[in-house]
Every structure is written in structure tokens, then in C-alpha cells.
Amino acid sequence: MSLKASFQDLPLELVNHIFIYLAANPQDVCAARLTCSSWAAIGVDHLLHVVPLVFKYDRLARLSEIAKHPRIPRTVRSLFYQADQYYPRLPLESCTACERGYVCLPRQRLYDYEEQREDFADSPDPVRNPQLCKTDLKRIQRKDPARRILRSNDRSEQTYHRYFFLAADDMHLIASDIDVYHLTHLFSACPNLDDVTIKVGRSEDHQRYPRMLDLAFEGIVQPPSQISISPRGVQPVEALARVTEKTGRLLKRLTLVGLTHELLEGNYVVLDKVRNLVRSLHELEIRFESSEDELTSSLSNMYSVLMRGELRKLLAAATELRVLKLDFKVIDTGFHPELLAIADLSQLTPASAWAHLRELHLGSFAVEEDDLCRLINRQHPTLERVSLANVDLHYGSWPSVFTRFAQLTPRLQHVRLRGKFVTFDDGVPPDFDFDCEDGDLRPSNFLRDAVETYIVHGGDYPDVDALLARDVTAASALLHSGENLGKGTATQILDWWLMHDRSEDYESAVRFWKAVASDNDMTSHTV
């Protein structure tokens, strides 16, 4: 107790100098913060090297406060820019919630009903004219008293105002330059800030977002799967480009998550600013996503943008890249091989090589064997790490691709293969399933490990059948051990085996799987 008291009596300047001395090792800073409550409070400033940000006015204003802080700006190295569109919680019973008396607002600004009642067709916009909207709600309630849309006037009044101010705040921010103003203050005050992540997504995960969202959307009913989230990502990326141009800052790392085709469909002024933004980058990661509710239109638009070569032009401007990661994913639908053709590799990469590229990650794309090998061969003087996930091979075979990789990449130190590697040419086996990107379903994957080792170190091509047999035996042993894997995991393992076995007789495969699980011996059983 006396030792803690002596620490608390130390001058503030001395405590700060101690934390500055320990700053090289964050673990030491964390240990020092455990000394006493006053040191814990002071140490927060010395741990802050990432600025989290939610796309709201009050959070943006916080950036200017950080910029004015006497110690924080020199430690800030990265910015996490969370740009969200806001949605209510979507319970399964929401379709019948109106009948139980929950509040329902017509024609919302941030989301709307695709199947509206005829009474709602001419409802006024709640953001532009809230008074007319409330009057319209009362008119509907009087017209159809059997369908209780409002639980009570007091509750609807409170809920409506929460929603209205949140929506108005969000629209005001998008329509103004307030974000550029505060971001400029932050970049001007933080000389080491060169790493930015912009993530655009839904705020249905209420564990990550402010409590104000729960308050704003409390009681608002929205039928599931009727949400539109386009456009996304254009405004925050444009704002970042304007800020870096205004402050003269050269970013080194940029991560863009949850973008749609809208970014590449912007006007030429915006695209020029974004190209200038990526010119100095050493690391660039872009994850394009499309939502289930607008899947057809978004995929069509993405294909059109790629055909025009807008992404190729953007990547060609990033001449200093050391690390490039590109992913094309579909939100809430998992992996869909039939959708991979939207991201043809020949439409993504520029004709010239990146002179300094060391690491390349490509996920969820389609390619021909010659195009993929040509890209790897073009980069082989500098390429050290390659990661591929969920690839659709239209012409060629995967054994041929892996063999050519092993011959083309003398400097390669690490290869990572994940997801499904599908061949759509008839009669060209095999397809491969190297587990999902998020983690292994089985205790081992002998085939994947052998292929990765073969590409890096050469030697003889792996015996696919023997390695598959070892994988299935290991997986069956895991099931036979009695561990509680869950029905979903067991089903995925079985589906994986069926894919490699190419058997259409599902029942026979199930009997075979049970036999393997009983004695872990594949050789005595046939499908």
C-alpha cells in the first residue's frame, strides 16, 4: 500500500517521462498502468496509437480534441474510420410485430419497405418534413383502427424524435465538409499517421456500435431482407483523398473494407483524387462486397465497372506497392462459385509489373491458367508471399497451375491456399477444398500442406489420393473421439468428402463415412 502511495506522489512530468521511456514495448506500458489508479489514467495517453472513429458528427468532433492534446498526436500512427449506414435490430418476429403494437414509421430515409400498404404510398419524408409525417401517421391510424400501428402517442413521439435526429445528423454529415475539417486537423497534428482503415458496413452488430443506435431505433419495425445499403464507401474515401491532398500527407497503408462498385463509378474528379491517394502506398487492401438484397444489380454493376478497367487504372497508379490484397465477397451468403466470374483476373491487374511487390493476396476471383501463371511470372523477381482463396479456374487444371508455380517462383518463401479451388472444364479433375478462410474444420489438411510445400520447395508432385485418404481418416478420427463438433461441422466435413469423391450416391457416402468413423480404416470400404 505504501509503495502505491509513493507512486501516486510522483510529479506528473516524471510519470510521463517514465511512460515515454517504456513506450517502445506496449507490454511494459500495460504493466506500468497496473501500478496504481493515477498511473492507469496517465498511461492511456501513451497506449493510444490507433484512433477509432464512428461516422457520426460527435465522434468526428473528437478528432479535433485529439489533435489539440499535448501528447497523443505524436503517438498516433493509424486511423480506423468506421463509416456505417444505420439499421434497426431485425428480430425474426418483426413481420408480425405491428400486430403486437410496436411502432412502425412509414417510408424511412435510411431504409424503406418494398411492399408498402397503399396508405403509405404518399407518406411524406420524415427527414424533410417531420410534422407532416406525424400527421400522416395519425391519419392512417384513424383510417384503419383495427391495425394498431402506434402503441401510444407518447412512445411514438419519443421513438420518432430519436430516429429523426439520428437520420438528420447522418444526412447533414454526408452533405457537408465537417468530416474533412476534423480529419484535416487530425492529420496536421499527427506527423506519424500513415495507416488508414475505412470500413463500411451495417450496424446490426450492436456490440460494436454506440448505445445511441439502440435508442434511436427502439421500437421501429422493419421486415427482414428488405434493406438497401447502396451506395457505400464513396464519401469517406473521397474525404480521405481530399484531406491527404490538402495536408500533403503520403499514406503508406490503406485498407478499404465493405466497398461496392460505387467507388469506381464516381466522377473523374473523385477517381483522380483516389488515384493520387494510392500513389505513395506500400500496402493496399480492398474488399469489395455486395448485399443479398441487391445481389443481381450490384454484381451487374461491378462487372460493368471492371470491364471498363477502372480498378486496373487504380492499381496501376499504385507503383510503390509492397503488399496487395484484393477480395470480392458476398455479404451474408457465404461462398458462391457461380458469382466468381465478376472478378476476372485479366480485368483486375495492370499490364506492367509492380517493381517492389513482395506479397500478393487474391480472393474470390475467376482466372485462366495462363493468366494466373503470367501474373506470378511477371512478379517473380520480387514476390515472396502468395495467398489465394476461392478461385474459379475456367481453362486449365490445378495440378498444372501448382506445377508451374513451383517452377516460376524461386524467391517464394510462403504460399497460403484457402477455400475452394474449382475447375469448370468438363473432365478436368480435380477440384480442391483447402478449408474455409476463417479457420480449419479438421485437425489437419495433409493435401493442402503438401501442395503449399511443393510450390515453395519443389520436388515431386503430391499424391492427391493418398493425402485425401489421410485427411478423411484424420477427420473421421476426430468425429469418433467423441468431441462435440456440432452437427454443422460434421455436415461440412461430409460435404467436403463428397466433393472430392465426386459421388452422386449420397446415402452410400453416408454409410461409407460411418464405417470409416467406426474403425478409421479406409482401405476395407468402398462407395
Automatic annotation (TrEMBL):
InterPro entries: F-box-like_dom_sf, F-box_dom, LRR_dom_sf
Domain F-box: 7-48
Record-given protein name: F-box domain-containing protein
Originating organism: Neohortaea acidophila
Lineage: Eukaryota, Fungi, Dikarya, Ascomycota, Pezizomycotina
